[in-house]
Amino acid sequence: MARRSRLRDRWTAAGGEAALVSRPANVRYLTGWSVPGAVLLLGADGRDTLLSPAAPVTDGRTGPPCTTGDLRCTVLPGDVSDPAVAAAELAAAGPATALLAVEEHDLTVVRHRALAAAAPRLRLTGLGRAVEQQRLVKDEQELAALRVAAEITDHALGELLESILVGRTERHLALELERRLMDHGADGPAFPTCVGTGRNSGLPGHRPGDRRVEEGDFLSVRLGARYRGYRCQIGRTFVIGPAPADWQIELYELVFAAQRAGREALLPGTEYREVDRAARHPLEAAGYGDVLEPGTGHGVGLEIGEDPRLSPAAMGKLDACVPVTVEPGVHLPGRGGVRIDDTLVVRPQADGGPELLTITTKELLAL
Amino acid sequence: MARRSRLRDRWTAAGGEAALVSRPANVRYLTGWSVPGAVLLLGADGRDTLLSPAAPVTDGRTGPPCTTGDLRCTVLPGDVSDPAVAAAELAAAGPATALLAVEEHDLTVVRHRALAAAAPRLRLTGLGRAVEQQRLVKDEQELAALRVAAEITDHALGELLESILVGRTERHLALELERRLMDHGADGPAFPTCVGTGRNSGLPGHRPGDRRVEEGDFLSVRLGARYRGYRCQIGRTFVIGPAPADWQIELYELVFAAQRAGREALLPGTEYREVDRAARHPLEAAGYGDVLEPGTGHGVGLEIGEDPRLSPAAMGKLDACVPVTVEPGVHLPGRGGVRIDDTLVVRPQADGGPELLTITTKELLAL
Known about the structure:
By secondary structure, the first copy, chain A, is of the alpha+beta class. In chain A, 32% of the residues lie in helices and 22% in strands. The A-B interface holds A 36, 54, 57, 59-60, 77-79, 81-82, 104-110, 112-113, 126, 171, 175, 179, 182, 188, 192, 205-207, 209-210, 294-295, 305, 309, 311, 313 and B 36, 54, 57, 59-60, 77-79, 81-82, 104-113, 126, 171, 175, 179, 182, 188, 192, 205-207, 209-210, 294-295, 305, 309, 311, 313.
């Protein structure tokens, strides 16, 4: 598989030999298979082995993928949640080389120790975030999956907006959105759907509760479909009733301007923190600096919050074909707030600039 | 909080000083609060601090719980997914003692290293699975939550059985079960609902797909409600159509007998592996030894697969008030299979023996 070859080329150039990939999204990226608990052993000789606690199943396709091309698959006997079992199997299947690079940001101290004990002839070193680095820039197949995820998400949200909202609970609306995502072909929600109304609106991590939608409320929703493993995100805020209040219009316009500034900053070569600054500055200038979240966006792909982070301390520059969210928001405790989230793909100005995947309108709708 | 005092008593008796609890279910158990990314610092002096990336929210109740009793809550500024930020905050809030016990089975190598670097005056040691050990035996409040979770689960399954099943897809049935769990008051599903029909029936990790229920199928479902954080599990297998085939009756009766033997073995003082053997032996004797899973049951509580494991290699003995599943199954590749899962609480014979929480009938229903 081209992705595994590319990774191998990079890390053998850096002096690496065999590597063990354990982070689930990284295993899926490099094999196409999603198996809880599976790890991927990349041999320096090009022989790769998926060590799996069960026959792999991905999106309804059941494995084994064993002997597909250059990937061997070994189903581990025994309880792989026991690190000693996994480590011993690994040692048996493992490389004859002296150096094994592992994902130290994924392995727990206990698993790392069990691995070292079970394979004493191997010297463990760090693979770092090499696979996450490679996952930053998406290929056409990945972008196609993200576009479908966004289309499903827009459909689900659009249908909800046509229904009657007053009197329904946050929890009920969230369930309905998730059902509609599935109806339109999602594998599942990309993350737990967030619906907040009234004083709960605009809270980023709010868990939908029993509060009912009332006239005059802000209603904020955040949802996304997962399609072939790829996750997108949309966030919108509406007003319930015939007309928004002045403070609602003012707050909405402010967040909208901030979100637009963030979107417009999405160009190849722009520093991550510059994008964050573009979205953050209008909100800080309006006096909301104290209530802002640490970041105003993040990468999306096989995980919903992946690299890059769009935050004041983030280091690095955007590349073309990197999909990210832009999602500033302001929540006023006790009153409510506004969030507007989009998923976009970074594109050069010559290609028309950032590609907006989530196209539901960002006008302030009074529903 | 009594749970924190009990933990502190045990580990100070073992020579421990301060401790850092990072595993989410353990943090929730010891504080009552569920906050993604929060860690709990237990001071040797009885001063405990919840280091949280956001105001804690549990089951719709929004924090801060700060200054509730003996628990302080500090909301961390910055991006707590960055281990260096969390570690530095921790060092600032941390104890003046020399020894800090951490959960090495939860902390990644990178977080552990960042912690050591940010707090060089602390010597890190292992807390082991002390909190998991304490979580094994449930108190009355925990058992009450599990009983409600089981009641919700039985209701949801019962309603599904009254509806027409032929022609509906696995995916649609799974969604409907999850919706019914929520309708009856669940916080959410305890785990992804599993529905398998025909050749997919009896597969433990099957993801519901587009296969439709047909006459003559085995239909197996596995679901559970989460209520106040506590998770239960039920699994049942049905036959679709007027009458089961002979092979279906035979297989069902075999798995039923195995499951009953497992249930009847649930008494205080019985070794975990004896329970597993009771459920496993009838299936092995019938020639299915090769297709069995590593375990035939597990503990439930704040996590769906927690200690104890009921498997051939498990070490330890059951105590009263430990809730576990008993869930043997046989899947015949290409044909389908049978699973029967219950959640029960271990009780002494004098108190009537094991308390069955999931009471949906285990007769072989032809639907």
